[in-house]
Amino acid sequence: MNLDFSQIVPFIPFLLKGIGATLQFVSISILLGFILGTLLALCKITNIRLLKIFANVYTSIFRGTPLILQLWIIYFAVPQLTGYDIPEYLTAILAFGLNSAAYVSEIIRAGIMAVDRGQMEAAMALGIPYRPMMLNIILPQAIKNILPALVNEFITLTKESAIVSTIGYLDLMRRAQIIGAQIYRNFEALFLAGVIYWVMVYILTKIGELVERRLRQSDTHS
Amino acid sequence: MIHIHDLTKVFGKNTVLNKVTTSIDKGEVVTIIGPSGSGKSTLLRCINLLEKPTSGTIRIGNVTITDPKTNIMEVRKNIGMVFQQFNLFPHMTVLENITYAPQKVKHIQRAEAEQKARELLNKVGLLDKEKAYPNQLSGGQKQRVAIARALAMEPEIMLFDEPTSALDPEMVKEVLDVMKDLVELGMTMVVVTHEMNFAKEVADRVIFLDNGVLIEEGNPQDFFNQPKTERAKLFLSKIL
């Protein structure tokens, strides 16, 4: 077997910098996707037709086309249309954030629908306005139920982030490819990158479990 | 105080309330009874507009609440409601359940809201449960907290939607006792219930509904002893 990890040792700092590069845009994308997804979910459950249609069309488009296509459209088509030379970093945040919002909105919508109708009725009967009712009463209960699905979405986003290597963004994946090209050996760098992705997802999973356990405490206070 | 005129509610092809007209005075305790599916709960839920009437008017004091220009939120502040399934907020403690709306809706300071909440908890006999979460309470305790939560808004009217129907038999009394205390205090109350004894003992008036139609109303003695309509006689013969 032709394996030699010693050759990539000088490149390890270069590879490790990819962790920061990946985490930097993934974390902002997750946040953007979550906020936008929550707003879209609220649009989906309102009685205002126009907002409902907008949210449904949005979701349909972003779920119905490949993520890599959305990424490429933002990176290559936006400059063509507007003349604005969009940086890789911003492209990555936008593509992943907008795409994730579509999936998150469906998860949150389902979560809100699953909260007992009586909760909303009790809040309305007390005269509590829509915003605080959603923020303090309905969403906390919805999020608790959908946390596993949300963590799953964040994990998918973290892993799929590797496709930003196709627009030349220097993330973990791209760096592994560059190292491979430099030393004419691909397995070692790719293997290392794979281990790092796995560790990142593992940590994310553990954080999810921790948050879930804390939220469940209100069910088992006795 | 509450004037209901020709109130009709239609769900799809189903007429749940059919031209119901009645009025309820300040301080009056009215129970709504009737077979299941007769529209009792719907009538109650129209009073705070949890159900939107299809036609007809409801006036509370000087305010026509069925007028689309009326601010429903303002109306609801003055009407407390207690549900069959309690509907306490499961992620909040008992104290938070009671103090949330006064703080958010009436902008009362936290300390003041908590003091008021403790007075109410004392009144319903649950002062020691302020830090408990709803799932740590029995059904009867949950319902008493729910009553305290509604009272914290200092409503002029209290609506009860089958408040004891989801309770184990031995817990019914503790909830009815709290409701009787409210009657003593002169609260205007509208109660949908299957507790005929409550209707007999404390109600000023009984409204009997069947198939969405107000069949008969009158004081409990007359209604239970000499019902005027055949429909009411039949109903009472089945349940008493």
Automatic annotation (TrEMBL), chain A:
| Stretches assigned to the ABC transmembrane type-1 domain | 19-208
Asked if the Swiss-Prot or TrEMBL record annotates the protein with the keyword Cell membrane, the reply is yes
- Its GO CC terms? ATP-binding cassette (ABC) transporter complex
Which segments cross the bilayer?
Answer: 20-43, 55-77, 89-108, 183-204
Note the PROSITE patterns from the entry: ABC_TM1
User: What GO annotations for molecular function exist for this entry?
Assistant: transmembrane transporter activity
The superkingdom of the source organism is Bacteria
The main location is membrane
- What Pfam families does this protein map onto? BPD_transp_1
Q: How does it sit in the bilayer?
A: Multi-pass membrane protein
Query: Hey, which family's this protein in?
Result: Belongs to the binding-protein-dependent transport system permease family. HisMQ subfamily.
Record's protein name:
Amino acid ABC transporter permease
Q: Which organism is it from?
A: Fervidibacillus halotolerans
TrEMBL record, chain B:
Q: Which GO terms describe its molecular function?
A: ABC-type amino acid transporter activity; ATP binding; ATP hydrolysis activity
Domain (ABC transporter) spans 2-236
The answer to keyword DNA-binding applying to this record is: no
Gene3D superfamilies noted in UniProt: P-loop containing nucleotide triphosphate hydrolases
Q: Which UniProt keywords apply?
A: ATP-binding, Nucleotide-binding, Transport
What protein name applies here?
A: Amino acid ABC transporter ATP-binding protein
| Species in which this protein is naturally found | Fervidibacillus halotolerans
